[in-house]
Amino acid sequence: MCSLKSVAFIFLLAVLFFISSPLVAQNVSINADGSMPDTSAMLDVGSTTKGFLAPRLTTVQQNAIILPATGLLIFNTTLNAFMVNTGIPTAPVWSQLVTSLGSTTNTLTSAGNVLTSQVNGVIATASPINSVSNTSAVNTLSTTVNGVAGAGVAMINTNTLTLAGSTVTSTINGIASAGLNLTPAITAGTTNILTSAVNTLTSKVDGVTATAPAVNTVTNTSAVNTLSTTVNGVAGAGVALIHTNALSLAGTTLTATINGIASAGLNLTPAITAATTNTLSSAANTLTNTTNGVTATAAIVNSISNTSAVNTLSTTVNGVTGAGVALIHTNALTLAGTTLTSTINGIASAGLNLSPAIAAGTTNNLSSAVNTMTNTTNGVTATAPIVNSVTNSSVANTLSTTVNGVAGTGVPMINTNVLTLAGTTLTATINGVASAGLNLSPAMLSTSWHLGGNAVASIQNLGTTNNFDVPFIANNTERMRISASGKVGIGTAAPTATLDVSGTYKLGTLGTVLTNMIKSSVTMGDATTFSNTQTKTYTATVTGANPNATVMINPRSALPAGVSIAWSHVSAANTITVAFTNTDPTAKSIGSITFDVTVIQ
Length: 601
Known about the structure:
Elements (H helix, E strand, L loop, with lengths): L1 E2 L3 H6 L10 E2 L2 E4 L12 E3 L10 E2 L1 H5 L9 E4 L4 E5 L8 E5 L7 E6 L2 E6 L2 E5 L5 E6 L2 E6 L2 E2 L3 E2 L4 E6 L2 E6 L2 E2 L3 E2 L1 H7 L2 E6 L2 E6 L2 E6 L12 E2 L2 E2 L2 E2 L3 E2 L4 E6 L2 E6 L2 E2 L3 E2 H6 L4 E6 L2 E6 L2 E6 L4 E6 L2 E6 L2 E2 L3 E2 L4 E6 L2 E6 L2 E2 L3 E2 L1 H6 L3 E6 L2 E6 L2 E6 L4 E6 L2 E6 L2 E2 L3 E2 L4 E6 L2 E6 L2 E2 L3 E2 L30 E5 L2 E6 L5 E3 L8 E3 L15 E8 L4 E2 L4 E7 L8 E6 L7 E10 L2 E8 L5 E2 L3 E8 L1
């Protein structure tokens, strides 16, 4: 910024506006009274009624001056100020002239990263921010601006995961993500393998393996749900294996009550939304399997029966028959004098005096019926039980029956365990005995789509989130499908176009019901000529065309002059006939022309 102490100095710089005037020595004087110029001035302009008027330019015009001389003076009409070039011609610097320091003006503004300073109309700009960098370590963010590093601050202040039904939401620093439905991941990612060996039942769900004893206690049933052990027709008192079997749901808490014993309530939500869990447990005759928080129970043993033939006893549990075992292991007759004793399986009969038999002639009959052994010797009959003791024992899933101290081969108690779903009703069937159906609707997401519609606050998606089609059924038959690639099929499960209708269709309220619209191209014509007013017909194949359909035909190139299409129709299945007429005075031929054909039927 330059300043002058008097207006006279400004006048000295106005040499570019020199006007011819009388010369005295080397000085120039411009005045009305003919006075001499001051000896210290090259140009002396004098007047008591007029002033000095410098060239007047806008800022744009000022900056357009080519190679302005150092010291060049103008009056800037944009800034209303005298401006002088204090730079050099190739790099001018336009500075404003002021008469005193008290008239200085200074404004400072910023926009974006540009700081603008305007002092006495002269504008200068600079970037207030020259460098910005961020560094992070663990959870600390540090920002450095223009080389000055700020104190580190935490990037994550709060981090919360919340669960609503099967929807998980992540809230970081108070900003909540859109809810993510975990159901597809749980359903698509779940694998379940169930195997058994000896007394160990192994369940592997999603790669997580859990094992549990298959059987801990044993009961037997031979009729429906009643357990009784029958050996040689002698049955123990029948007892019910399963007295009650109920599954109940309160919110998302599942409780299994078997034989009046209620399990602790199991919250299904964490199992659905978190990592897979898998547990197996058994109590009484009930096997409980909990996978992903869903508990299913079933009876271990559904049927047991014993059969005997000759001296062999076989026990069948849940339809699986064990190896036969001997009924009679020991059979001894002893004689003390004339007294005969029969000992079977360690059970001795009363001594029998053989004297009468010896004297009168011995007779001896031995028979058995049910569990009674009858011995008639010389007309004297004695009876005794064949079986004196029956016990059952179990380890894991194996039932063993011991008769008269002789243990039979163990057999499995649980042969089948099936969970079935009808709509939203879950049923557990173990060894053919089904539990009461359990309605899973209350445990399902409240955001699922309902019959009758949903009330929503914003647009909601309906469909799949992975590479699967969306079929729609009516009357238990698929009627429409949206493929994973976005094609809509009506009447077809494999649409090949954006809209693929297999069947009839109608466009508009007054439209006609149609079946097909066939687009094809055919080439017709030859060199045969036909005269004025004559008609020439050609046929072409259009696959799928049927009689009585509408035919629209257009040539891809111009017909010969005077030749036009008279009519067209489907003359037979897959065949169209087109007639051409000649209105030209000269004979014409069609030649070979390709036509676009549309058949609507």
